[in-house]
Amino acid sequence: MAVKILYLKRVSLLVLVFLICLVHYGSGQQAEKFYDYRIKAVYPHDSQAFTQGLFFYDGYLYEGTGLYGASSLRKVRLEDGLILQQIDLSAQYFGEGIAVVNDKIVQLTWKEQRGFVYDLDTFTEIEKFTFSTEGWGLTYDGQYLIMSDGSAQLTYLEPDTFEPVKHLTVTSKHGLVERLNELEYINGVIYANVWQTQNIVLIDPDNGRVMGWVDLSELPEFTAEHCFPTIDVLNGIAYDASTDSLYITGKLWPNIYQIEILGLTHKYH
Ligand SMILES: [Ca+2]
C-alpha cells in the first residue's frame, strides 16, 4: 500500500512539473540566449566619426555621423576606411540613423524632427520630411523603414510618405528594453544597439520579444584607455547580404569589426 501511495505521489509530481512547464512555455517566456561571437576581420574606422548610422550596400559601407557641426553622410571603402564621398549637414542638424530604400538614402536627425532623402549615387538631397519623436536608429525591412527614438518602441514608417504605420514595443524577460539605438534588419531579425551598453539585442519583429543578446564587452575599445564609457559607445551595425558578413563599430572607434555570431539560426520569413 505504502509503495502504491509513493508511486502515485511520484506520478502526481511528474504531472505537476509537466503542467508548470506547459504554462511557462505557453506564456511565451522563451529563454533569451546569450550568443558568443568571433572576430573574423578588423578594418580601420575614422576615429573622428561619431557613428550614428551604418549600412552596407553594393560593396561599400555607408555611414551617418552625428554632433552639431560635424554631422555627415559618407560612402566608405571598407578595406582601408577611405571616404569616397561625403556631404556635411548644416550645423543646426545632429545626424542620426541612415537606411537605403530603392536607390535613395534616408537620414534622420536627433531632436530636429527632420529627415533627409538623398540620391544614393550623387548624395543630392531629394526631399525632406518631418516626424514627431526624436530620431535615433533607422533600417529597412524591405517593406517599411523601422526607426528607433531612444525608447523601447520602434516605429514602422511607410518608405514613400514617411507616415507611421505601426509600433513595436521591445520587451525582454526583465521588461522594456529602453534606449534602442542603431538598427539593422537581417534575415527576419532586428539587430539593435542599446545605448550605453555593450550589448547588441536581437529582436523578433513579429512580437517585439528579445530573442537573444550578444555581449561585446571583450572588444579592445571597451578596455582601452581612450574609452569614455558614456560617449564612445558601441553603435553601428551593417550587413552585407551578398557575403553574409556582419560588421559592427562604435562612436569614435578606430576599428570596424567583422564578427560572426555563433550558433545563431536565422529566422527566415
Ligand atoms: Ca545599421
Tell me about this structure:
With 269 residues, the protein is mainly β. The protein has two domains: 1-30; 31-261, TolB, C-terminal domain (Neuraminidase, 6 Propeller). Helix content is 11%, strand content 47%. The strands form six sheets. A five-stranded mixed sheet has the order 1-20-19-18-17, with no helix packed on it. Calcium ion is lined by residues 54-55, 139, 182-184, 237-238.
Structure annotation, total helices: 2
Evaluate the radius of gyration.
21 Å
Following the backbone from N to C, one meets helices and strands in this order, namely HEEEEEEEEEEEEEEEEEEEEHEEE
When the domains are counted, the total is 2
| CATH fold topology of the largest domain | Neuraminidase
Q: What is the 3D form?
A: globular
Distinct ligands, ions and cofactors found in the model: calcium ion
Distance separating the two termini: 56 Å
Q: What is the total tally of β strands?
A: 23
Structural class: mainly beta
The largest sheet is: 5 strands, mixed
Helix coverage percent of residues? 10-25%
Mind telling me the CATH class of the largest domain?
A: Mainly Beta
- Strand residue content: over 45%
- Across the major sheet, the strand order is 1-20-19-18-17
CATH-level-2 architecture of the largest domain: 6 Propeller
How is this structure best summarized?
The chain has helices at about 1-25, 220-225, and strands spanning about 35, 35-45, 50-55, 60-65, 70-75, 85-90, 95-100, 105-110, 115-120, 125-130, 140, 145-150, 155, 165-170, 170, 175, 180-185, 190-195, 200-205, 210-215, 235-240, 245-250, 255-260. It has about 270 residues and is mainly beta.
